[in-house]
Description:
The protein is an alpha/beta fold. It folds into two domains: 9-193 and 235-251, Rossmann fold (3-Layer(aba) Sandwich); 194-231, no CATH class. Helices cover 46% and strands 14% of the residues. The chain has nine helices and seven strands. A seven-stranded parallel β-sheet has the order 3-2-1-4-5-6-7, sandwiched between helices. The longest helix has 29 residues, at 111-139.
Amino acid sequence: MDLGLQGKTALVCGASRGLGYACASALVAEGVDAVIVAREPRALDQAAHTLNEQGAGRVIAVAADIAAEEGRVRALAAARELRDAAADAGFDIVVTNAGGPPAGNFRDWSTEDWMRALNVNMLSAIELMRATIDGMIARGFGRIVNITSTAVKAPSSYLGLSNGARCGLTGFVAGVAREVAPHGVTINNLLPGTFDTARLAANFQAVADRDGVPVESIRDKRREASATRRFGTPEEFGAMCAFMCSVHAGYLNAQNILLDGGTYPGTF
């Protein structure tokens, strides 16, 4: 299926590895020109090199902290590089993605811990939307995909910081997405289940350390709890993200797409 994205521009956050990289890869394969952002320069440069070798879309790497204003300014300015400094340069697609806050017991979290989580996993995404959405409206096309968490639908006690911040972003999106929809702009959230990434391994390790058990037992237990008896692959996640950004997904808006193999037991 041709997703109709040839020549579009995208900003993909947290794209040096894992699910962010998978989203960038799927978009670039469709001919999207992308600015990829992450904090670690070496891994990001390697990711950009690999993506540019695909030979479809052009990729520019910006090593920056997207949760900081200075990082956002640098990432957003790179849109002009993709469009040779055109006056109307802007992103047609924005994929927000930031590593989740640490797991733990809510009794141990300070106000500073909460503010940091809110900034990274809620406010930074809102700021990126604020900076790009009017340009999308003016061009008559825009796709914003926020990579959030299954915690939005099935909160875990040891991920309380993530529960709070990501649910806050979800509530914000529910309102603004309906405001911009008449202009060809959609905003949706993509909720990853158990995908085989370094982040998942870190979460397993946190639980193993808390409970004093081998991490392999945590991993095996989680795998068996999955409806598919396996973890998802980053490539599957990237493909879903690319479709949500496509011209075919214009009627998909203000939704929380849970990609977990059917493991979540609820009806809604």
